[in-house]
Amino acid sequence: MKNGGVGIKVMYMDEEHLFSVEQITAMLLTKLKETAENNLKKPVTDCVISVPSFFTDAERRSVLDAAQIVGLNCLRLMNDMTAVALNYGIYKQDLPNPDEKPRIVVFVDMGHSAFQVSACAFNKGKLKVLGTAFDPFLGGKNFD
């Protein structure tokens, strides 16, 4: 790219095009936005986007830039394991009341090349991330 950034060269309609990472990500977000709008039958303007916990500040800013390109107001970037925990807490009906001892749940993600764990405490209407750990060099490929 002219600005020194990373570019992705593709052939599109028999022409070579150079896209930034933000533009490629915006294309993906556009498709996701269209799918959501078709299913909801109304416009989508706000979103929360999950990103890998190991994303740097620059990578997180690139995701925010991509959302802006699409016209999405990103309310929050959320670490992927926190998003998993939030989803668990939203749908779990038998969580302890706020005045009771919380339920501790550990979420494990063993990907192809990385391993991450998050420990969370749940009460009805409350999620607290107790701790996270990440190993970028341990994954399923190590067990093949």
Automatic annotation (TrEMBL):
This protein's UniProt keywords: ATP-binding, Nucleotide-binding
Single GO MF descriptor: ATP-dependent protein folding chaperone
One Pfam family recorded for the sequence: HSP70
GO cellular component, one term: nucleus
Domain of life: Eukaryota
Family annotation (PANTHER family): HEAT SHOCK PROTEIN 105 KDA, HSC70CB, ISOFORM G-RELATED
Name this protein carries in UniProt: Heat shock protein 105 kDa
Species in which this protein is naturally found: Nannospalax galili
Gene expressing this chain: LOC103727217
